[in-house]
Amino acid sequence: MTTRAADVRQKGSDSVETPSGKWRSGENFPVGSLLIRSGLRVHVHAFYRFARNADDIADNPELSADDKIRRLDRMAEILDGAPGRDSPAAAAMRQSLIETRVSAQHCHDVLHAFRFDATKLRYRDWDDLMAYCRYSASPVGRQLLDLHGESREAWSASDALCSALQVLNHLQDCADDYRRLDRVYLPISDLAAEGIGVEALAAPASCPGLRRVIDGMLDRTDALIEIARGLPAQVTSFGLRRESAVIVGLAVRLLRRLRRGDPLAARVKLRTSDCVGAVVSGASGFAWR
Q1: Distance between CA atoms of residues 86 and 138, nearest Å
Q2: How many angstroms separate the Cα of 257 from the Cα of each of 25, 137, 172?
Q3: DSSP-assigned letter for residue 60
Q4: What is the rounded CA–CA span in Å between residue 257 and residue 167?
Q5: Where exactly does CATH 1.10.600.10 map onto the chain?
Q6: pLDDT digits (tens, 9 = 90+) for 52-109
Q7: What is the topology classification, in CATH, of domain 121-289?
Q8: How far apart are CA 246 and CA 254, in angstroms?
Q9: How far apart are CA 251 and CA 172, in angstroms?
Q10: What pLDDT was estimated at residue 260?
Q11: Of the candidates 160, 134, 137, 129, the residue with the CA atom closest to the CA atom of residue 226
Q12: What is the pLDDT of residues 238-255, one digit of tens each?
């Protein structure tokens, strides 16, 4: 066992995994839904649990940055075959990778992103944020595509969709991330251009300058979604093609709600009608033709 792993065990914890206190019931998008081929759902769920538990470590306000890094490193060790029961999610993911022969790189990429979350609290500009999304978001789509044996030519559109979803989630949670974790994904250069600082996120409602920053991010996210619209047509798997179309539709609807809503005043989220509309249009193929 490495020194870092030993440090974690010496703290008296039976598991390196830990709940963050952040809601898990507010997921916007389907994970391994019935549209996914039944034999692959268990592997989709294994990846989701792995990423979710790593995310919980990074988002736990009770842990120090060093402790978060040690726990994430321990997950990486178990993912690569180290013995131990202290990360069931990593052990299950390791078994999934063995069975599917999918590369572990996507899992290591998300761990890389969560190490950023443990130590990096600000993002310089949009490009800096997109570099983060390359590790925090893109691996999710790439894992699904590889799991289905899809062409890597679909990665570009998939990356755009996953990055769009990540930014939308950051905007939904911008007030909570700042208040609980002092973490801000809104580009500092955008805030500075409006003459405001991160402290604007502590207000009960968005000031005009912050609203313009949010709208500017939504404009750039809309451009990502336009690229993502080409994803379903590039996917050969029937179920994954439909699921990707549904997710594109949900992203469009959440973006519209964020245009109208204020994430500082209340959490902006999808409604049942949004989900039904996205499923109907996506499953029918209307959203991607």
Answers
A1: 27
A2: 19, 21, 10
A3: -
A4: 14
A5: 121-289
A6: 999 999 999 999 999 999 999 999 999 999 998 999 999 999 999 999 999 999 999 9
A7: Farnesyl Diphosphate Synthase (1.10.600)
A8: 12
A9: 12
A10: 97
A11: 160
A12: 999 999 999 999 999 999
